[in-house]
From TrEMBL:
This is Multiple sugar transport system ATP-binding protein. It comes from Vreelandella songnenensis. Residues 4-234 form the ABC transporter domain. CDD domains: ABC_MalK_N. Keywords: ATP-binding, Cell inner membrane, Cell membrane, Membrane, Nucleotide-binding, Sugar transport, Transport. It comes from the Bacteria. SMART domains: AAA. GO terms for cellular component: ATP-binding cassette (ABC) transporter complex, substrate-binding subunit-containing; maltose transport complex. PROSITE patterns: ABC_TRANSPORTER_1, ABC_TRANSPORTER_2. One of its GO terms (molecular function) is ATP binding. PANTHER family: MALTODEXTRIN IMPORT ATP-BINDING PROTEIN MSMX, MALTOSE_MALTODEXTRIN IMPORT ATP-BINDING PROTEIN MALK. InterPro entries: AAA+_ATPase (IPR003593), ABC_transporter-like_ATP-bd (IPR003439), ABC_transporter-like_CS (IPR017871), ABC_transpr_MalK-like (IPR015855), ABC_transpr_MalK/UgpC-like (IPR047641), Mo/tungstate-bd_C_term_dom (IPR008995), NA-bd_OB-fold (IPR012340), OB_MalK-like (IPR040582). The lineage of its organism: Bacteria, Pseudomonadati, Pseudomonadota, Gammaproteobacteria, Oceanospirillales. Pfam families: ABC_tran (PF00005), OB_MalK (PF17912).
Length: 382
């Protein structure tokens, strides 16, 4: 059992504040993913949780106990970094058991724990090999094995898969998700990979410039981003943004004028705004629909055929709009296309970049990875 709480945690390096008063609750056995642009403070936050970096302000609590002054080795955590150094002269088994040897754990117990970790990570046939005789993915698993044998209450992963090729990443992603189910440990995971974040997380934390922009389930962040930053950051390819003008508001939603002059009704709450307010309309590439009667149009500048899907990059005024279309669309570059969108798929942002709240909560917004399991296959998190 392990919960983690951050209470107004800050970190200053000299005069520069890189973590700016972060509050966060991580529940027991939750899989929490940190995402955000390079330099936003993900690794610094992880290192503060691990005890490798002190907090300038605020409290870090594990199971309700303040641990700011507890050393890294006594926090009950294990961390796996992007660059994991294995001892080259030691076998896989010795690499995994080394921390236990240092801690004076008896040999039989060490052996048992290494074998258990090797079973979970499918490393049993490789236990007697040296690291140089392993593939990148196998080495990565040894690094994770070193963390598992320590039986931590919380795992911290900082981009553990970023050195691997695409196929191995997929395999390791699935193995880590399985590992989480099998160990039922609390895990905090940093990644740049949208698919890892969306598929592994119970809860995603979007960081930006040392602050938390939004915390929520993957589907909640995708369907209900609270501001333009989160909207543009979660989802791949990125959300398109177009200028729009507020025409009218009612309790059922707002009417907006689109760049081409057409008007559309969108079910969001804009009652605090005056007519003629300039807004931004956010439309995801996968929600744009080619339609000869559609209200939007532009000229195709680039066309990418991916097989099952085709990406169209369409010039609309100053904006280059991405449309994910069917793989077999017959268009070519320089063709003009018309397209539209379902109103409930549209996002609107005010002058401060805040989303106008949706009046239709998406039915899947509360789903997490655990909800995808068949009932009874594993214990639900508390
Ligand atoms: N020891 C340090 N001294 C001074 N500044 C630091 C130190 N460590 C990190 N920083 C700064 O703190 C900010 C956050 O760095 P951090 O490594 O946490 O970012 P990150 O979100 O992990 O980025 P990336 O995605 O590139 O790994 C950066 O601007 C970085 O330059
Ligand atoms: Mg980092």
């Amino acid at each position: 059992m392990a919960t983690l709480q951050l209470r107004t945690i800050s970190k200053r390096f000299g005069d520069t504040e890189v973590i700016k008063g972060i509050n966060l609750d991580v529940n027991d056995r939750e899989f929490v993913v940190f995402v955000g642009p390079s330099g936003c403070g993900k690794s610094t936050l992880m290192r503060m949780i691990a005890g490798l970096e002190s907090a300038s302000d605020g409290d870090i609590l594990i199971d309700g106990q303040r641990i700011n002054d507890v050393g890294p080795a006594d926090r009950g955590l294990a961390m796996v970094f992007q660059s994991y150094a294995l001892y080259p002269h030691m076998t896989v088994a010795d690499n995994m058991g080394f921390s236990m040897r240092l801690a004076g754990v008896p040999k039989a117990e060490r052996r048992a724990k290494v074998l258990e970790a090797a079973r979970i990570l499918q490393l049993e046939p490789l236990l007697d090999r040296k690291p140089k005789a392993l593939s990148g993915g196998q080495r990565q698993r040894v690094a994770i094995g070193r963390a598992i044998v320590r039986n931590p209450s919380i795992f911290l992963f900082d981009e553990p898969l970023s050195n691997l090729d695409a196929a191995l990443r997929v395999q390791m992603r699935i193995e880590l998700a399985r590992l989480h189910d099998e160990l039922d440990a609390t895990m905090i995971y940093v990644t740049h990979d949208q698919i890892e974040a969306m598929t592994m997380a119970d809860k995603i934390v979007v960081l930006h410039d040392g602050v938390v922009e939004q915390v929520g389930s993957p589907m909640a962040l995708y369907h209900h981003p609270r501001n333009r930053f989160v909207a543009g950051f979660i989802g791949s390819p990125k959300m398109n943004f177009l200028p729009a003008t507020l025409v009218d508001t009612t309790p059922e939603g707002v009417t907006i004028r689109l760049p081409g002059g057409d008007e559309r009704h969108v079910p969001v709450d804009g009652r605090h705004l005056a007519a003629d307010t300039a807004l931004e309309l956010g439309l995801r590439p996968e929600h744009l629909v080619l339609d000869e009667q559609g209200p939007l149009s532009g000229e195709i500048k680039v066309l990418e055929r991916l097989g099952g899907q085709t990406s169209l990059y369409v010039q609309m005024g100053a904006e280059l709009i991405t449309i994910m279309a069917d793989g077999d669309v017959a268009f070519r570059v320089n063709d003009t296309v018309r397209f539209g969108f379902a109103p409930e798929r549209a996002h609107l942002f005010d002058g401060e970049g805040l989303a106008l709240p949706s009046l239709q909560q998406h039915p899947l917004a509360g789903l997490t990875r655990h909800d995808n399991r068949a009932p009874g296959t594993a214990e639900e998190p508390a």
